[in-house]
C-alpha cells in the first residue's frame, strides 16, 4: 500500500463524518499535491500523504491543544507514519509562526521544519485550496481566512504575519511547476 493510500484511509476515518467540510478541503489539497508530485519523483507520494493529513489535528478526538498542526503531528507520531511525514504535518503553512502566537513554540519545536521545495509545495497546495476543496489563489485564500475568523482572531493575526513566507512558498512552487513544463 502506498503511503498516500494509508494517509487517505486515516484522514477519511478521522474527518469524513465528523468534519465533512474539512474532509473536502484536504481532498482538494491532496489533488493539488498530486499536480505537483512530478516535481519530486518518488517523494511525490509523500507530498500527497502530507496533503491529505495536514489537517488531521482538527479531528475532535485529537484536538488536545486545539492547535491542529501540533495535535496532528503528535497523533501521527503514535502511528506508523514516517518521521518526515509527521514533521511536514507539524510545520505546514507556516505553523511555527502561529505556534509562537499561541505560546506553543517549544512544543512544536519537537518537529523540525525541513524548509524544502517539497514543504513549499505542501504550503502551496494548502494555501491555494478553499475550505470546500476548490482551487483558489493565495490572495483569495488569505482573504477568506481573515473574513471567516474576523480581524482580531489569532488566526487572522497569524496569516497577516505569515504572509511573506506563505506567498514565497506559493511563488517558488508555481515557478518550479512552470519550469517543469518548459
Automatic annotation (TrEMBL):
<dbReference type="InterPro" id="IPR006674">
    <property type="entry name" value="HD_domain"/>
</dbReference>
<keyword id="KW-0175">Coiled coil</keyword>
<dbReference type="Pfam" id="PF01966">
    <property type="entry name" value="HD"/>
</dbReference>
<dbReference type="InterPro" id="IPR003607">
    <property type="entry name" value="HD/PDEase_dom"/>
</dbReference>
<protein>
    <submittedName>
        <fullName>HD domain-containing protein</fullName>
    </submittedName>
</protein>
<feature type="coiled-coil region">
    <location>
        <begin position="94"/>
        <end position="121"/>
    </location>
</feature>
<feature type="domain" description="HD">
    <location>
        <begin position="22"/>
        <end position="102"/>
    </location>
</feature>
